[in-house]
Design a protein that fits this description.
41% helix; 16 helices; N-utilizing Substance Protein B Homolog, Chain A; 417 residues; Rossmann fold; alpha/beta
Length: 417
């Protein structure tokens, strides 16, 4: 039997979403199994785009579906999920309605095709359905973040992010931005339009840059120039911060517990020609051979700050995951404080929007780790960002929206007396 063109891609998108909702996997974790039979890069990208836009606009897609049915479909009904991906294609990816129907209804073999056809057709009539300009966040997310904070963040989630590059040589910032057709928002940073194939960009093989969100690059910037001093990058893989530190003159020990992720770090170091000392170990049981002049903790966290590029976190992460992360983060901070030389600097950072993992942890470090706060200054940050009154950094996707936004991050800095 000849398959409908495009149908395997939609099945793959459905498998991606099933992995997120039924097994709690990230989209990245789900790719291996869900996209196994999708070989062509454009087809894989389309399946991920369909799943991503469905997750990004899920609350609003569900509201449309409920507006067109007499009785609400169960949240876990296959018909609801199929309608979600059909509407995401029509309303966000500009897929023609006939193509959406041809590749959507076969997903409901033996199911309520007539219902799905009727609901979809009613919703995509000219002038019938539009999504809001800003995605509506799930109720549980709004409850955690607060209405005001959620309203500020939501505009940054309407589109997938553009492509940020960190440069090995910050002196080349302006020339590279012009040559690559991008813009720069900070020294050593170039932002390119989304959709660019990374491996095809100029000087990829030469290793002159690596992919790193602007917000993710700030914690390493807060340690300044290394001048040959020793730095420890905790939870270092896949290596963006390690490469930043090495490029800024630090002698870096890069520690991570994951063999797979540490191999990515080694590959990145090889491509860029930067030298560091990778170590595979559990930071909570590892004992260093010497103390450090600087330690950067990019701590394991809920990663809710990456929601504009990983919208699955809006639906996978809840209040129950936060306490476990908080406990691990505090244990790492306490260890790091012990490993600092007198006068050594600690930067603690998380790509989380949860106050418990950011502001709450900074207050805990103040009170429990024997370190002295070193306030972050506006001069150290990209234009348009300012430190908090406490001297911490807090970013979220709604910031710098006129330039394409940035991930959500928290960072604080301390010195050992």
């Amino acid at each position: 039997m000849v398959s409908t063109p495009g149908l395997p891609v939609r099945r793959a998108a459905l498998r991606l979403l099933d992995a997120v909702f039924r097994r709690g996997e990230t989209l990245e974790q789900a790719e291996g199994g869900a996209l196994g039979d999708i070989r062509k890069a454009p087809d894989r990208a389309l399946a991920k785009a369909i799943a991503g836009e469905t997750l990004r606009w899920l609350t609003d897609l569900d509201a449309l579906i409920d507006s067109a049915t007499k009785q609400n479909l169960p949240d876990d009904a296959k018909a609801r999920m199929v309608l979600r991906i059909m509407l995401a294609q029509a309303l966000r990816l500009d897929t023609p309605a006939h193509a959406v129907i041809a590749t959507g209804l076969p997903l409901l073999a033996g199911g309520p095709r007539r219902l799905a056809h009727g609901v979809f057709s009613a919703l995509v009539k000219p002038g019938r359905s539009v999504l809001p300009e800003v995605p509506t966040l799930p109720d549980a997310v709004v409850a955690r973040w607060g209405a005001e904070k959620a309203a500020a963040i939501a505009p940054g989630l309407a589109f997938p992010p553009e492509l940020d590059l960190a440069l090995k040589d910050a002196a080349e910032t302006e020339t590279r931005a012009v040559a690559m057709g991008g813009v720069t928002l900070a020294p050593g940073h170039v932002r390119l339009p989304r959709g660019a194939a990374v491996e095809s960009l100029a000087d990829y093989k030469a290793g002159d840059w690596w992919v790193q969100d602007l917000a993710a690059s700030i914690p390493a910037r807060l340690l300044g120039e290394g001048a040959g001093q020793h730095a420890l990058d905790l939870c270092a893989a896949p290596g963006g911060k390690t490469m930043q530190l090495v490029a800024n003159g630090w002698n870096v020990t890069a520690l991570d517990s994951s063999k797979r992720r540490l191999e990515l770090l080694k590959d990145n170091l090889k491509r860029t020609g930067l030298k560091a000392s990778p170590v595979r170990a559990d930071a909570l049981t590892w004992e260093p051979k010497h103390r450090f002049d600087a330690i950067l903790i990019d701590a394991p966290c809920t990663a809710t700050g990456t929601c504009r590029r990983h919208p699955d976190v809006l639906h996978r992460i809840g209040a129950r995951q936060i306490p476990e992360m908080v406990e691990q983060q505090r244990a790492l901070a306490a260890k790091a404080a012990e490993w600092l030389n007198p006068g050594g600097v600690l930067v603690y950072a998380v790509c989380s929007l949860e106050a418990e993992e950011g502001e709450g942890q900074a207050a805990w470090i103040d009170a429990n780790c024997g370190l002295t706060p070193v306030p972050i200054t506006a001069a150290e940050l990209p234009a348009g960002l300012t430190p908090t009154p406490e001297g911490w950094l807090r970013t979220h996707p709604g910031m710098l929206a006129e330039h394409g936004g940035l991930d959500g991050f928290f960072a604080g800095r301390w010195v050992k007396p």
